[in-house]
Design a protein that fits this description.
By secondary structure, the protein is mainly beta. Helices cover 15% and strands 45% of the residues. It has a 14-stranded mixed sheet.
């Protein structure tokens, strides 16, 4: 097992969901519907109703993560308490925990168990990698497979419908986005690019199943390209549940070294 790829894994897994805006440095997103066309407002209402409405989520997934030419198979345990915390544990082969991540609306904490190091930063730390307009809610939406209704709050929106799906294309704060939405009003694809640049994010959701009354995608793939780097993740859940009690332990041993 290569220690170098696993030592990077904790940070990248956090950044996988944080690179939503592909490193664009634009103004913060405003939640003002005044400039949205009527069709956009209808979409907002429809997708807000069909987004997963949950209190807690707990899932375990087998994942294949690739950094450039290096690939690693890991197990991810992901727990969420809505609007409060996202917790991720990364386990390598032989059941060795390589990393642990805890993200709250105020902070980002990352433990590298292989090298006894940790990062503890304010939430603004993610802006090193993302648009300053990113919100904690957007992170939840990407991980759980919800449509980010904040992206739909724009007057630059085009909608194409067919018997099988709906395609939603828009421009917001210098970013172009594209959602593919199935008949159940759940997203199966999401693409994001920065205007005039090659940075891009592609997410795909599939294998939908009703879990505790929630139409949840059991498979989630994510591909990110930007600044000469490529990162991809293919996750397949083998366990998931909603609205059960979750624990998010994150105790940093005294011997661990803080990384700035």
């Amino acid at each position: 097992m290569r220690r170098n790829i696993l030592s990077k894994l904790s940070l990248v897994l956090a950044v996988l969901v944080l690179t939503y805006s592909c490193a664009s440095k634009k103004a913060a997103v405003k939640k003002d519907d005044s400039g949205i066309a009527a069709k956009g407002k209808d979409l907002l209402s429809t997708y807000e109703l069909n987004n997963l409405n949950f209190i807690t989520f707990s899932g375990r997934a087998k994942a294949k993560v690739q950094f450039g030419e290096e690939t690693q198979n890991v197990t991810l345990n992901i727990r969420m308490e809505r609007s409060k915390a996202i917790w991720i544990s990364v386990t390598a082969l032989l059941g060795i925990e390589a990393a642990r991540v805890l993200i709250t609306p105020d902070s980002v904490k990352i433990m590298n168990r292989l090298q006894s190091e940790y990062v503890a930063k304010p939430f603004s730390y993610i802006y090193k990698y993302t648009n300053p307009g990113i919100t904690f809610k957007m992170l939840e939406d990407i991980l759980i497979g919800n449509i980010s209704t904040e992206m739909l709050r724009t007057d630059q929106l085009q909608i194409a419908t067919s018997e099988d799906d709906v395609q939603v294309i828009g421009v917001k704060e210098g970013l172009t986005f594209h959602y593919g939405v199935n008949k159940s009003n759940r997203p199966f694809a999401f693409n994001l690019m920065e205007l005039g640049k090659t940075n891009k994010l592609e997410a795909h959701y599939s294998d939908f199943a009703v879990i505790d009354g929630h139409n949840f995608p059991q498979r989630f793939t994510l591909n990110i390209e930007g600044s000469g780097a490529k990162v991809s993740s293919d996750m397949l859940y083998n366990k998931s549940e909603f609205n059960k009690t979750v624990e998010m332990p994150f105790n940093i041993p005294s011997r661990y070294k803080a990384i700035n």
